[in-house]
Design a protein that fits this description.
single chain, alpha+beta, YefM-like fold, 3 helices, 47% helix
Amino acid sequence: MAYEIPVTQARAELAELINRVVYGGERVVVTRHGKPLVALVSAADLERLEGLAEEQEERTISSVTSIGGSTSSAHGEPRRFGIAAEHRGPEVT
């Protein structure tokens, strides 16, 4: 669970918050009007998050590539994936 702190208080306590994150292993969520604004995480946490995002992107690309690699069905007809759409300009009245 992350420690939450209002942005006005975070400004005044930034050095302490950095120490809590770096040395205490805490995660700090800075809020404005009770809503999350930003998070302070350690550099190690950031590297893990970025690594997870890259892994997810690679899995997505791999999945799309494997779907796109099969271009014909068992009956020899091309497979169609996705949603068809057409662009219509503004209506003229």
